[in-house]
Write a structure and sequence with these properties.
Helix content: over 70%
Largest sheet: none
Shape: elongated
Distance between the termini: 71 Å
Number of strands: 0
Number of helices: 11
Low-confidence stretches: 1-32, 35-40
Order of helices and strands: HHHHHHHHHHH
Mean pLDDT: 79
């Protein structure tokens, strides 16, 4: 009687083992953002898809709009650009409102306000959501303050020297470019570098590895010659 019992149990075990498929690494679904792994495809995944041109129309609209705005800020003042944007938006909404009113008057329909669906949307920010945003911002602010104190009070001499060299280089960059120009260049890089890196990842990683090794060897040589660094490492 023991053998039939074992035989009846084995199919259930085999079916359960064969029916359950192995979980994907990181627990992500096929539609999840590859850069986030197990995290759900939320706002970060939307940004990832945007800069990697997953939706060409959406990315093109965002890229073109922001680039035109930055170029406008480079040519005109902030007040002028904001005023023209508000006027353009009001021109569209007022024209559409008048057009729908005329159509309703001619057709004698009672469709109501054309933007009623948007006017009824609740956009109030709850106290809980506000505190969550503030708490999240405070985490980054405290981290930045600790980093600033550590660099300016020279907790690590090498890190402080890196900041000094970087700021010295930025003085030359500031002499050539202004803030708006740097923002334009940053946007061009954000919307071009990720997609190029995705296509030529192997070659780029190879040269980046070579540059990283050379930089590391130079930093180690500098650390060996600086007073107090070698002794600190030995301890």
């Amino acid at each position: 009687m023991a053998e039939p019992s074992a035989a009846t149990q084995s199919p259930s075990v085999s079916s359960s083992s064969s029916g359950a498929e192995p979980a994907a690494p990181g627990g992500g679904s096929p539609g999840a953002c590859p850069a986030l792994g197990a995290k759900s495809c939320g706002s970060s995944c939307a940004v990832h898809d945007l800069i990697f041109w997953r939706d060409v129309k959406k990315t093109g609209f965002v890229f073109g709009t922001t680039l035109i705005m930055l170029l406008s800020l480079a040519a005109f003042s902030v007040i002028s650009v904001v005023s023209y944007l508000i006027l353009a938006l009001l021109s569209v909404t007022i024209s559409f409102r008048v057009y729908k009113s005329v159509i309703q008057a001619v057709q004698k329909s009672e469709e109501g306000h054309p933007f009623k669906a948007y006017l009824d949307v609740d956009i109030t920010l709850s106290s809980e959501a506000f505190h969550n945003y503030v708490n999240a911002a405070m985490v980054h602010i405290n981290r930045a303050l600790k980093l600033i104190i550590r660099l300016f009070l020279v907790e690590d001499l090498v890190d402080s020297l890196k900041l000094a060299v970087f700021m010295w280089l930025m003085t030359y960059v500031g002499a050539v470019f202004n803030g708006i120009t740097l923002l334009i260049l940053a946007e061009l890089l954000i919307f071009s570098v990720p997609i190029v890196y995705e296509k030529y990842k192997t070659q780029i990683d190879h040269y980046v590895g070579i540059a990283r090794d050379q930089t590391k060897s130079i930093v180690e040589k500098i650390q060996a010659k600086l007073p107090g660094i070698a002794k600190k490492k030995a301890e």
